[in-house]
Amino acid sequence: MTDTPTTPTPVTLDDVRRAYEQGATNAAAVRNLLGRGSYTTIQKHLETLRQQAQQQAQQQAPEAHEIPREAVHAIWSAALTHGQALLGVALAQAHAEAHQARADLAALQTEADALQQALAEAQQQAQQALEAQQQAQAALAQAQQQAQAALEAQQQAQAALAQAQQQAQQALAQAQQAAEQALERERLQHAAAQAALSAEVQRLVQQLADLRAALAAVQPQQQTHKPA
Questions:
Q1: How many CA atoms lie within 13 A of 182 on its CB side?
Q2: How many Å apart are CA 156 and CA 160, to the nearest integer?
């Protein structure tokens, strides 16, 4: 909740009169005592008070002792000169305060420009940081995607290798089985061949034995039929 700025109370003629009665005889002194009001307004009130004082003095003075016009003019000229001097001082002080206010305003403007530039640079750096973060996130997402693809490729390669190993084992088992079957057939064929050969040998041996027996039987008969 912000405080509502209060409007300063204008300086009245009574305010300036009370200050004048307390010893403040110029605009700067009155303003320092009151703490508010413009030099122009205070100076106007001071002129009014001086005019009222002069009128009151003229009214109270005895007619027999009327002040000469030249003396009044001299007093008025002196008062006017003093008032102009005070006004000059007040104007000089006002000009100095205005100059200081312009300097302060220029300094504030410089600070505002610097803050504006710093804000723009901070916004630019924040935008660059945001873009860098977005690029990093995109690169991370791409790296994760590539890693996922590599993992899937590795899994596929492992599956293919496992399938190839299984097929190789099956082919080896089938080859071993075929080799064992062929070896068994060859063994059986060899055994059959040996049996056939043994039978043939036995048949030939028997035939030879039969021939020998027949020959042995024929030789005695030949000897019996020889001439004497």
A1: 6
A2: 6
C-alpha angle 95-101-107 in degrees, rounded to nearest 5: 140
Task: Assess contact for 10 and 37: CB atoms under 8 A.
Answer: yes
Phi, psi of 149 (to 5 degrees): -65, -40
Query: Who contacts 94 (Cβ-Cβ below 8 Å, separation ≥6)?
Result: 39
Pair 87, 43: CB distance under 8 Å: yes
Residues 31-49, buried b or exposed e (16+ Cβ, 10 A)?
A: beebeebebebbbebbeeb
- Distance, C-alpha 196 to centroid of its chain: 96
Instruction: Tell if the pTM clears 0.70, that is, is over it.
Output: no
Instruction: Give the residue, 219 or 35, on which the prediction is more confident.
Output: 35
